[in-house]
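--- STAGE predict ---
source: upstream dedup step, 1 unique chain passed
mode: sequence only
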Amino acid sequence: MAATPAFPRGSGAPDVVVGPLDLAARVDEALAVQAVAFGLSQAEIDVRRHIVLRHLDDPRARALGATTPEGRLAGFVYGLPNDRAHWWSTVVEPYLRATGCEGWLDDSFVITELHVHPDFQQRGIGRSLITTVTDSVDQPRSILSAIDTESPARGLYRSLGYQDLARRGGFPGAPKPYAVMGAPLPLLRGR
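--- STAGE serialize ---
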């Protein structure tokens, strides 16, 4: 997968490039981006570090980074094909079953994490990361979970074709409810 600019040249945006990311090697830098973007504590970062590294043991996992010319990680995405035995899948399954959308758990690519540092948000980086990673998979659809509130992230997902499959879902230890969203692949490209 070749690196591609996240924005057209001359757009006034920095020359951030989206390309393959050795997430295992840069996990701490990626989690620092996630901590700032998502408001995580150090204890939450420590737990997530082990989760990310465990996910990366799966050879089907894919990770991309958005990198500045200086090598700073401005954002990242990673995911893998869904497996009903994975923790995330077991948590969301009852919510999806209740809405008749349980079938979305089969033959889908899960966007596990997508985060852009606040200094780089609203510049097309998240859009470039998620479309590039999903363009490289064999599954016919993608699913993800997002905090169940109207936010720029949910607006981005909707603009790409994601629709709510279940709402008001809960994750253990998460203070806010989540929505599970799904989209056919390839993702929409219009804004």
